Amino acid sequence: MPGPTVGVLALQGAFACHAQILRRLGAGVREVRTPAQLAEVDGLVIPGGESTTMTLGVEREGLAGPLQEFRDVGRPIFGTCAGLIMLDTKHLGLMAITAERNAFGSQVFSFEENLACPQLGPAPVHAVFIRAPWVTDYGADVTVLAETGGHPVAVEQDNLLAISFHPELVGETRLHRRFLDRVQAWAAA
Ligand code: GLN
After folding, report:
1. What is the distance between the alpha carbons of residues 85 and 97, in angstroms, rounded to a whole number?
2. 0.70 cut: is pTM over it?
């Protein structure tokens, strides 16, 4: 059976690395910039980048409504870093989370940490944080997969997955695999 087709929102930011890792995991990948392109994929990655710039792109392309419908029918979405911010209640409002931008301090450009994430197995997740957000508030149906210093940095709600860090930069594939499993299940249903 051919793998599912997933989209990577390619308005701005680090979309190319995600496309590469998803292809390595066997998925068909398309860059998504317009509502018509969004309609052709079974799941979507919203990459890291700059949420302010990405928001302008979403407005310019008229993507907010189509993204809402995409979520409403249960298609999986995986947001990383700026992508997590885009999913929150102050931006696209697709997930019951509130994110704080640059939460580790605006001077903290980047750092790395090994995070316990039991849902992904016993090996910790090597997380690279780059001007990263964390989650300050979340709804009752949100599950926290990983946290640092008591702050959630990986969360899940139905078919939505959002993380503060960048597994695509360090060859950590388990989160993309988890997303692709959801996409596969959705496409087969
Ligand atoms: N600080 C960025 C923002 O607020 C996110 C950083 C990232 O995606 N690496 O949008």
Report:
1. 9
2. yes
